[in-house]
Amino acid sequence: MKPGSAGLYYAAYGFRVLCYFAILPIGGWLLDKDSLGRFFYYLAVINLIGSVACLGLNSYVLRRAYSPASLLIVAGRSVWLISGLYLILLPLSMTLSEIAPALVLIAWISSLSIVGESALLGLGRRAAASGSFVLHGLIFLTSSIIGLWAGASFWALLIGLALAEASVLAVSIRVGALSHLGRPVRIVGGSLRFFGKADRTALIYGFPLVVAGAFSLGLASLDRFLIEHFLGFAKVAEFSLMYALAAAGNRLILQPFNLWITRVYMSGSAKGQAWRDARKSGTRIMVALTGYAVALSFVGNMILEVIGRDYHVAPVNLLLIGGAMTAFAGFILEALRLKWEGRTVYFAALLGFALLVNVSINLALIPRLGIEGASTATFVAFWALFIYTSQRSRQRVVNSRVAGICALVLLSGIWWSIR
């Protein structure tokens, strides 16, 4: 990929992220805290269903990038298998609650758009992927604003999300990334064939990623469910806005590296000089995210107060969540080799360990400390995940001394904030 196209891709990705964050102040102005908290709560449900229902196939599609013909076949079969699963989930959801079927439908669109986006990247269609990112951001922003002004409550944001995800899927189909779809009648046949001998590798590789996806989203979402249970939707809104602000830096700082390392893996050159460059980049990313976390503790509330004074949080919470995002980025960097070497079972086990730590601490602290307890649980779980992965890594991406200094800076800031 040419440098120019890489810059365009990153700019488009940044635009998509910024459009998501741009709607949050508008949502905060036009919705009460309870309604905004419901949006974040249902968004967590959608993300959890959508990621698990992908069955790890989006990663398997990327692994077929060496052969465009093979990638197109796998992407097409993935669409049918995922759709077949949702045709089972949809009737089941109707027995749960009135809102459940709508959430499953949005998750269905999201799952297919993830596969479509992976197919675009695997085929090297960076311009199309960039265009889909811009389209996603614009549709989500404009449709959500129109819905909010029309008084559609949190549903405006959920419908805007569904339309935006559908636009990515439409671009993938339009440019041929999902050209091997055939007719809808092939849903059952294509799904059954996917379990055949030729595609057992996909299931062996992908199933642990299904589990890992559930664990990963549990880390990012389960605290919302617990906060809602103990504290209510209004506190979910406070915690989620703070979390979103911290995650913004993580995405924008980490994405250029992800773009580069994916290209390295797909070209088969993930060794030698490439890994020396990866270690340099990984170390810089940890330093940058640590700086972002510290800065967030000073200016985060200024940004949150743009939405409303009701969303003001203690600076230590911003530092805890920002520091947790730093550790999670470190885990992603260290775990790259696990996924690309096919060690997906170990990858899933690591995330399961972190999820267990996170849930245990959340259950102990949220009833006593509120969102401060949730922030503490996230910080401890993510750093435990990063440290354990780093110690077990065959070839470290992040320099251990630099990681230690970053941890010391964050802990010092936390102590200073609470003293």
What is the gist of this entry?
By secondary structure, the protein is mostly helical. Helices cover about 85% and strands about 0% of the residues.
Structure explained in plain terms:
With 419 residues, the protein is mainly alpha-helical. The chain has two domains: 3-195, no CATH class; 208-418, no CATH class. 84% of the residues lie in helices and 0% in strands. It contains 15 helices and no strands. The longest helix has 35 residues, at 273-307. The radius of gyration is 21 Å and the shape is globular. The model is unreliable at 194-199 (pLDDT under 50).
Which keywords apply here?
mainly alpha, globular
Describe the protein's topology.
Blueprint: H1 3-30, H2 33-53, H3 57-63, H4 68-93, H5 100-122, H6 126-149, H7 155-174, H8 186-194, H9 200-231, H10 233-266, H11 273-307, H12 315-340, H13 344-369, H14 371-392, H15 400-418
How many E strands? Answer: 0
Question: Could you state the oligomeric state of the chains shown?
Answer: single chain
Biggest sheet, in brief? none
- The separation of the N and C termini measures 50 Å
What is the number of helical segments per DSSP (H or I, 4+ residues)?
15
Structural class: mainly alpha
Low-confidence stretches: 194-199
Strand content: under 5%
Give the helix level as a range of percent.
over 70%
Name the overall outline.
globular
- Average pLDDT rating: 81
Number of domains: 2
